[in-house]
TrEMBL record:
Stretches assigned to the ATP-grasp domain: 121-312
Keywords carried by this UniProt record: ATP-binding, Ligase, Nucleotide-binding
The UniProt record lists the keyword Repressor: no
UniProt-listed Gene3D superfamilies: 3.40.50.20, ATP-grasp fold, A domain, ATP-grasp fold, B domain
Keyword Nucleotide-binding set for record: yes
PROSITE patterns reported in the protein's UniProt record: ATP_GRASP (PS50975)
This protein's name: ATP-grasp domain-containing protein
């Protein structure tokens, strides 16, 4: 009789739509072992039903506590086969535990290249990809000298950071001096030339050997920084058609960053003037928000189940044809829209998948209400977005 695989899920309840990973791993005959700091009673019923066992720690930031939880599971169930959170925040914790328990996947020594933007740049360059000029600066004087070289505007962001948090567009010497007043002295920052381009992504999943078994893309109405700064509506979508050059560069990145049996989310600039692609950063985890669900709607399949099959048997069985465009449309509470949600449903109901409220922490970017819709053509997609976001 085959031994059951043991899969430790770090923080399996967050974000809520990732709970389905536990469901599908469990349904595929894998021991799902959860570790988090939430009381068991506060986990959803669905998650409780699909965890083989749950170990609550007082503090996820205390490595010794989490280490003891993994040791307990190893003692009770035998060798641990996988440790995964699918979450940027816990990437280093996952790697530390994998290193200490000798588990398949990224280890401590891999973290520098997938967590720090300066190392990513080096790997991009070695792979032959274009990158924005810039580097880590070590002092205020060094930063001033660097702006002389790059010219304003510049982008300053943490060398190791998630998303657009703590990221600044600096347009003048005065704004740079202001930045020195409010920046976090504990953080190492990187400065880059400002690129006038749209962000496009190459996202997907690889098998055990690092072959891409599924890929997709995301395009955004505008940069997250602009959405926050202007408090504007945004939308983003999974397109049916993906540019061949994006696929080619994405494949190079998957190889260069040694992505094995993992989700990936690689960001590129499409430069407005030339339409050339320039590598921005890599994220070795699934894209955030509802993107992973949008993949399912774009192709009528179940990525959570396919992931479980890859983990268990290294097999991806879905027939991916990129059948639909899927769009997320934000609506903010402080805007005066021309059409109500009921109007949108009445007019475009056959395209609408779901309408949901967004938790407060994400609302500044994602809006208080998110509309998910799918279309066969980009014209239909644009029409729905315009109608949903039109103002009185």
């Amino acid at each position: 009789m085959d031994r059951k695989m043991n899969f430790i899920m770090i923080s399996p309840h967050f974000p809520a739509n990732f709970e389905t990973f536990a469901h599908r791993l469990y349904e595929n005959g894998i021991n799902t072992l959860g570790i988090a700091d939430s009381p068991y009673e506060e986990l959803s019923q669905g998650l409780r039903d699909h965890l083989t066992e749950y170990y609550r720690v007082d503090n996820m930031e205390d490595y010794d506590q989490v280490y003891r939880a993994v040791a307990y599971f190893a003692h009770k169930y035998g060798r641990i086969d996988r440790i995964e959170s699918h979450n940027e925040y816990w990437l280093e914790l996952d790697a530390h535990l994998r290193t200490d328990f000798n588990v398949f996947g990224y280890k401590n020594e891999d973290m520098l290249s997938i967590k720090t933007k300066s190392q990513m740049k080096e790997i991009f360059r070695k792979t032959g990809l274009k990158v924005a000029r810039g580097r880590v600066f070590t002092s205020a004087d060094d930063a001033r000298a660097l702006t002389e070289e790059l010219g304003f505007p510049v982008i300053i962001k943490p060398n190791s950071g998630v998303g657009a948090s703590d990221t600044y567009k600096i347009k003048s010497e005065q704004e740079l001096e202001d930045f020195f007043g409010y920046c976090n002295p504990q953080v190492e920052y990187i400065m880059e030339e400002f690129i006038d381009g749209d962000i496009v992504t190459f996202d997907g999943l690889t098998d055990h050997e690092g072959n891409i078994v599924f890929y997709s893309s995301l395009e955004y109405s505008e940069a997250v920084l602009d959405t926050v700064e202007k408090d504007s509506d945004m939308f983003y979508y999974v397109p049916r058609d993906i540019a061949p050059e994006l696929i080619e560069l994405g494949k190079k990145c998957v190889q260069a960053f040694n992505v094995k049996e993992r989700f990936f989310h690689f960001e590129f600039f499409r430069i407005k003037k030339t339409k050339d692609l320039m590598a921005l950063e890599v994220n070795c985890r699934p894209p955030g928000g509802l993107t992973i669900d949008m993949w399912n709607y774009a192709d009528d399949f179940d990525i959570f189940d396919q992931y479980a099959r890859v983990v268990k048997d290294n097999q991806f069985t879905a027939d991916v044809q990129h059948r639909y465009n899927v769009v997320y449309i934000s609506r903010k509470a402080n805007k005066n829209y021309a059409h109500s949600i009921a109007d949108i449903e009445a007019k475009y109901g056959h395209h609408i998948i779901d309408i949901e409220s967004v938790p407060g922490i994400f609302a500044k970017i994602m809006g208080e209400v998110g509309i998910l819709a799918r279309t066969e053509t980009m014209d239909e997609l644009r029409e729905i977005v315009q109608f949903a976001q039109a103002k009185q």
